Amino acid sequence: MSASQPHTNPHVFIPKKPVRPEKSEGGIRFRLTCDYEPAGDQPTAIAELLKGFGNNEQNQVLLGVTGSGKTFTMAQVIAASQRPTLILAPNKTLAAQLYGEFKSFFPDNAVEYFVSYYDYYQPEAYVPRTDTFIEKESTINEQIDRMRHSATRALLERDDVIIVASVSCIYGIGSVETYSNMTLKIALGDEIDNRALLRQLVALQYKRNDQPSSVGLFAYAVM
Questions:
Q1: Helix (H) / strand (E) containing 183
Q2: Per-residue pLDDT, 37
Q3: Which of 19, 30, 62, 181 is the most exposed place for a label (fewest CB within 10 A)?
Q4: Quick one: pLDDT band at residue 177, thresholds 50, 70, 90?
Q5: What's the confidence (pLDDT) of residue 13?
Q6: What class, spelled out in words, does domain 27-57+68-183 have in CATH?
Q7: What CA–CA distance (Å, rounded) separates 76 from 79?
Q8: Rounded to an integer, what distance in angstroms lies between the CA atom of residue 28 and that of residue 193?
Q9: Beta pairing, strands 110-114 & 161-165
């Protein structure tokens, strides 16, 4: 076995990783907005959790009965640690509840909602007894789809991000570089060539329509 270092061995292939774009809204701090202070066992729990973070502990457990302020305790930990946070909920109902609570605690930060966008999903199936093939059917909730994209955009552009998600977040949505290459940045005051803009929109799979009424369409008019 060679004792050479991989990074100095000319025979070891090291893939080139694309440079990730800089975050346009990076550096914003978490700011907790609340009219009350930690009480009871909460100050001790907050201090112990922060101590665990400082010691690089990988697993910590916060125990508490319903209504004991676990969400508020975690909000305090997020504000004190200033770390982007992923919160996993077992179902959409609890995820929506937690999203609302954290949104109220951090109104000036990027609190985002990331759950499955399917209102209905029937996988394809085959019934041997009747020799029947059932095609896949699904219905997508466009509002939740927009919220998923908002969550992804926040991760690319900001540091002060809290994502409240269901297990839907374990499925990959592609690399940062691929997702970034499918975006078009336009700022107020930019001077843009009309034809170049139209070509870029078409390249991103948008379709021109004089009366756009759904996602993926755009209209163009000369003033």
A1: none
A2: 94
A3: 19
A4: confident
A5: 61
A6: alpha beta
A7: 5
A8: 33
A9: parallel
Burial of 184 (0-12, 13-18, 19+ CB in 10 A): exposed
Q: Which of 38-52, 100-114, 119-133 has the lowest mean pLDDT?
A: 119-133
| For the chain, domain boundaries | 27-57+68-183, 185-223
> H or E segment at 163?
strand 161-165
Q: Which helix (H) or strand (E) holds 218?
A: strand 217-218
Residue 35 tokens read as 């009219």
Rounded-to-integer distance, Cα 112 and Cα 144, Å: 11
Residue 170 per-residue DSSP state: G
Give tens-digit pLDDT for 155-164.
Answer: 989 999 999 9
The pLDDT tens digits for 119-144 are: 888 889 888 989 999 888 888 888 99
Residue type, 97: Q
Please give the backbone phi and psi of residue 64, each rounded to the nearest 5 degrees, phi first: -175, 150
Model confidence at 197: pLDDT above 50: yes
Task: Give the pTM.
Answer: 0.78
Would you list the DSSP string of 55-110? TT-S-------TTS-HHHHHHHHHHHHT--EEEE-SSHHHHHHHHHHHHHH-TTSE
Q: Are strands 207-208 and 217-218 parallel, antiparallel or unpaired?
A: parallel
Find where tokens 């009366």 sit.
Answer: 211
